[in-house]
Amino acid sequence: MKPPALLLALLVLPAAAQTPPAPEAKNADPFDKTRVNIELLLGRRMKPPAFDPSAYSPFAIGPVGGLPAADPKTPDQPPPAATSESLLRALAPRLRVTGYFSREGLSFAVVDGTPRREGDVIILNHQGSAVNLRVRRVEDGRLVLGLGDAEYTLRF
Predict the structure, then answer these.
(1) How many separate domains does the chain show?
(2) Are 122 and 60 in contact (CB under 8 A)?
(3) Is residue 17 scored above 60 in pLDDT?
């Protein structure tokens, strides 16, 4: 019976020689992990980084971070000035003439929902500037517009 006792002693002694694991600190805050997660999620929101003025801004005028600057080798040249006739030919078809009527001896054409008679001015926007087209004549089936010396006839 001696051999099993010896065997038992050999197995128990090394296990007893090992140091027991240190007990967990009972003073640790159970919400530390939650605080770390909140800091990771809201840190940038609560303490945003400093403003970088070189970053792109959609409200900035001119070249700002990331937008190409104007090439200094090619001078800015304004587009060729349009003649009255070419401008009138480009703008007149944008008008929608939907009717014609006479009242008390005056002829009217309904242009873009507004009655117009001879001498009225129709203001149109062309490349950021206002262009004044004058109604020269209103006849049955025709509206004659003018810009400077040029005339253009719209048929309806």
Answers:
(1) 1
(2) no
(3) no
